[in-house]
Amino acid sequence: MYRTVLAEGQHEDLVRLLNRDLLIDQWPVLRTLVPRHLREVWERSFPELAAAGSAAV
């Protein structure tokens, strides 16, 4: 569900459906499931995701 919301969700979907801590925790896996451009946008907007993704590598 998170992959779909990240890729296709509207602002209100993101606010209502995503949990910050769960997103950060699951980001190392989720980042491999979304297109590169989408991953880059999210990681640029939320540096904690970039840190979580690089920590898992």
Give a brief rundown of this model.
With 57 residues, this protein is an all-alpha fold. 77% of the residues lie in helices and 0% in strands. It has helices at 2-8, 11-17, 20-30, 36-45, 47-55.
Describe this structure in words.
The chain is an all-alpha fold. The chain is 77% helix and 0% strand. The protein has five helices and no strands. Helix 3 packs across helix 5. It is globular, with a radius of gyration of 10 Å.
What is the N-to-C succession of helices and strands? Answer: HHHHH
Radius of gyration: 10 Å
Q: Which percent range fits the helix content?
A: over 70%
Strand percentage: under 5%
**Cα shape:** globular
Q: Please, what is the average pLDDT?
A: 92
Secondary structure layout plus pairing:
Elements: H1 2-8, H2 11-17, H3 20-30, H4 36-45, H5 47-55
Task: Jot down its keywords.
about 55 residues, about 75% helix, mainly alpha
